[in-house]
Amino acid sequence: MTTQSPTTNPTRLSFSGVSKSFGVVRALRDVSMDLRPGEILALMGENGAGKSTLLKVMSGVYPADQGQITLDGTLQNFTSPLDARRAGVRVVHQEPDIIPGTTVAENIFVGELPRRAGRFVDWTKLNDDAAQLLTSFRFGQAIDPASPASDLTAAKRQMIEIMRSLRQGLKVLALDEPTSSLSEAEAEDLFALVRQLRDGGVSILYVSHRMNEILGLSDRVAVLRDGAMVGVRPAAELDQAQLISMMVGRTLEDGMRKTRQTAGPVVLEADGLVSPDVRDVSFSIKAGEVLGIAGLIGAGRTELAKTLFGALPRSAGNIRIDGQDTRISEPRDAIRAGLVYVPEERKADGIFAERSVMENASIAILRRISPFRLIQKAEERRIVTDFASRMRVKTPSLEQWIGKLSGGNQQKLMLARWLATQPRVLMLDEPTRGIDVGAKADVYALIDELAKQGAAILLISSELPEILGLSDRILCLQAGRITATLDAATASEESILQAIMPRHV
Amino acid sequence: MTDTPALTTSPKRRGVIRRIVTAIGPQNLSLLAALVVLILIFGTLRPDAFFSTRNLAAILNAIAILGIVAMAQTVVIISGGIDVSVGSIVGLGSIVAATAMLHFDSAFIGILAAVAAGSLAGLVNGLLITKGRVNPIITTLATLAIFQGLSFIVSNGKAIGVLNTSFNWIGSGRIGGVPITVIVFVAIAALMVFFMRATDMGRNIYAIGGNPNAARLAGIRIERYRVGVYVLTGIVCGIAAVLLTARSTSGQPSSGSAGLELEAITAAFLGGCAMAGGRGTIIGTILGVLIIGTLNNGMLLMMVPNFYQLVAKGALLLAAVMIMEFRTGARK
């Protein structure tokens, strides 16, 4: 074991006034936090609260814009994860990479393989050392040091990664959602390992959404909200309800929906949809209705929308539009039926960065305005000008490359692209992600306006105030299933979180 | 929300020079400059031979076949693919046309046979790449060998003479003093520019190469387009095969077509194509072809031995790609 015994210094790792922004998004705001030697500190917060950014700043992936990080009282300025690792600060992810084609033992001892005669790997010693290390953490039975590392499950990869970091002198270990792909038994093994490390003096920062797990395992709990530290409390003093109330309470922006009118006839019905990340989902949406979809990352929200859109293969289920069974096997079918999807990943799934604003905005209606395959350029210009000015797009000209515009203007153009098709059902996936406040307000106004005109809108958002402020009804998804359908008039952030957070350990 | 027209849209009236620049594309100006420099160099070194009408006509005649193939190559590269087998398709088309005319003494049948063979070869490429999910370079590298092998099998490795005079007229005839080969090249160039700029299909090809995910999510059937561009290339190679066969009055399994892929790909990259797709223009490629044609002609006049010319051609492809990458890097 290379872990240090607790020093006289009461804090191991300390954040003081750390801030980090990405463009207009303030991911961390003036975060201060102390991690003590030999404790498990849980880190909680909604999607986008800043947990990942905090881990990345801590491990040198990003520099902090402001503030200081000290380790054992010494100011640190990690410029890379390797830098942080050398100082004993390590982040272990859900499914750590292993070196393909090597054994478990080689992965643990990488960079310091025992040698014989100066240059040949001493395989016997290597395997014995690895077995000894594994046994000391009671994994001697479960993991064979000589077996290929690529055969290991996610759980065992995490263990191996932790073993490897122990070899290199571990002071601070951060675990990022370690149990999300683990079975219950595997999770128990991990908890035992984490406790053993804590008792050996390692400081553990444990990021998870699972409240039971956190309350049972950790010594203290830190909660982030909108990038700011809400508070750090001893786990023994907290229960689930208190945790949720710490996580929520974000300010609701006023006037998101000016009008909520009685919805019209049912436009879209999904019946028993099944695809890789969607499990038996049924719902319907009416004309003029905004249906919010809430869920944690990985709950299957985007996958649900893409399944409806024909972009992900559907293995079961029916889609009816206006009561008619509609065959949707590729996006083109959905678009023709008036069902469109504005993707979350604008760069990867939306824009053609090196093409003009005009071409980007008109691509979905191009066939319609091209009789005999000849683009009617005057018609194209008229339609694009119309929708782009309705969306208040700011661009020097329609010939400008879209990649040169701001994120907000790109997003407005994506909306313009799809509005030009005059859809019946509009699926918006995180429509306000990464855009500035002014553009957000425009998007909210647009959703309101479209609903008033009778469009059915399916709104995916990680921002609970947005979901609450814009939706008529809210579908809560967890692990690909609908766990609740809430009426937005009576729903609260608490009731949504209750429905989307995993219940079991 | 309709009161603020935040867009400046009307294109202003421009001067003649500005309009010419826009037509060529500002990114192609450096190519034009390079071409002028080359012409000046060879013109200075061999003023007697280089500027003669005969020589300038020879340059145009020499690049016609390459130009046609390079334009098709450009469309494939813009769509995100590449076709290494173009030279072999031309060779196959040439042999098939000559063989067909051994049996039916008809220029029409000869042309039809070459184009049919080319489009079939393109279809094979396209289906292997989309349905077979084989990487485009690997696919067309394999079919480069296969198509060439087929031409050798059919022709027994020898040229097949063509006696049909109306067919051979395509290769040697002139209309108003302009060689028919050059007329065909110019006509195909005009069609290609029009196809890429004015039709929804041209736009969609740029979209598919630029961002295939986004193209699919925008409702474009990208597999059909991917097959389509290879078939188009096959057809165009079939036309090139007709010109080659008519010019040499014989079906040629490899002479005149082998190595065409190197020059066609070089021209496309010189003209501004990017390996990743989504970028490049027909006009740019034509300028690239002119540069290659001038270089080849100049080296010939300077009596640079053949072996050295091959080294120069390879170096030019590398230089073209490096310039392209450098420009892209500077922009990002």
Characterise the protein shown here.
The complex is a heterodimer of chains A (505) and B (332). With 505 residues, chain A is of the alpha/beta class. Chain A is built from 17 helices and 22 strands. Chain A has three domains: 182 residues, Rossmann fold, CATH 3.40.50; 169 residues, 3-Layer(aba) Sandwich (Rossmann fold), CATH 3.40.50; 74 residues, no CATH class. In chain A, a hairpin with a 2-residue loop joins strand 4 and strand 5. In chain A, helix 13 packs across helix 14. Chain A is elongated. The N terminus of chain A is likely disordered. With 332 residues, chain B is mainly α. Helix content of chain B is 74%, strand content 2%. The N terminus of chain B is likely disordered. The two termini of chain B are 34 Å apart. Chain B has a single domain, classed as ABC transporter involved in vitamin B12 uptake, BtuC (Orthogonal Bundle). The interface between A and B is large, with 44 and 29 residues.
What's the SSE blueprint?
The complex is a heterodimer of chains A (505) and B (332).
Chain A: E1 13-22, E2 25-35, E3 40-44, H1 51-58, E4 66-71, E5 74-76, H2 81-86, E6 89-92, H3 104-108, E7 115-116, E8 120-121, H4 123-136, H5 154-167, E9 172-176, H6 184-199, E10 203-207, H7 211-217, E11 220-225, E12 228-234, H8 240-247, E13 266-275, E14 278-286, E15 290-294, H9 301-309, E16 316-321, E17 324-325, H10 331-336, E18 339-342, H11 346-350, H12 357-362, H13 377-390, H14 407-419, E19 425-429, H15 437-452, E20 456-460, H16 464-470, E21 473-478, E22 481-487, H17 493-500
Parallel strand pairs in A: 3-10, 3-11, 6-9, 9-10, 15-20, 15-21, 18-19, 19-20
Antiparallel strand pairs in A: 1-2, 1-4, 4-5, 7-8, 11-12, 13-14, 13-16, 16-17, 21-22
Helix pairs in contact in A: 13-14
Chain B: H1 16-24, H2 29-45, H3 47-50, H4 53-78, H5 86-103, H6 107-130, H7 136-155, E1 160-161, H8 165-172, E2 174-175, E3 178-179, H9 180-198, H10 200-210, H11 212-217, H12 222-248, E4 250-251, H13 260-270, H14 282-301, H15 306-331
Helix pairs in contact in B: 2-14, 4-9, 4-12, 4-13, 4-14, 5-6, 5-7, 5-12, 6-7, 6-8, 6-12, 8-12, 9-10, 13-14, 13-15
